[in-house]
Amino acid sequence: xxxxxxxxxxxxxxxxxxxxxxxxxxxxxxxxxxxxxxxxxxxxxxxxxxxxxxxxxxxxxxxxxxxxxxxxxxxxxxxxxxxxxxxxxxxxxxxxxxxxxxxxxxxxxxxxxxxxxxxxxxxxxxxxxxxxxxxxxxxxxxxxxxxxxxxxxxxxxxxxxxxxxxxxxxxxxxxxxxxxxxxx
Length: 184
Prior knowledge:
The protein is an alpha+beta fold. Helix content is about 55%, strand content about 15%. The chain contains four helices and six strands. The strands form two sheets. The chain has a four-stranded antiparallel sheet with strand order 3-4-6-5, with helices on one face. Strands 1-2 form a two-stranded antiparallel ribbon. The radius of gyration is 22 Å and the shape is elongated. The model has no long low-confidence stretch (mean pLDDT about 85).
């Protein structure tokens, strides 16, 4: 049977991965293919991820170039990008779709930082909830018997250390994202 601690750690790792994925979708002043990760294109009646119907590249710091594999997709890709809440304007020359990433205004940067902080706080809450679940599991084991109290105490301390380290990781990831957003 897997230990409570390793189960909690796996869940905490997933929380960090989810946080990073969420942060990838926050637009900064820099171009990144990850910005378009959530965009789905109508391809033969199916909502298909953009990366599965086109090549996405970043030839310059403020430019994303999308080269659809199927010429019929140009308008669908443009529609999907315009519908997304990224505030990007695609332009197509018949061969590729270009998206110039405009510099962010100071007000927009501050809004994005607030959004990032809110997402990070949700991740912290998730990590704390995982700790709570782990502590409840340890208490169940203690009530069921067979596990000495000092072992339970040690497990609780280890769980707290694990929680603290993941909360610190979230803080570090948030700090990096804030710096990236505020970069001019």
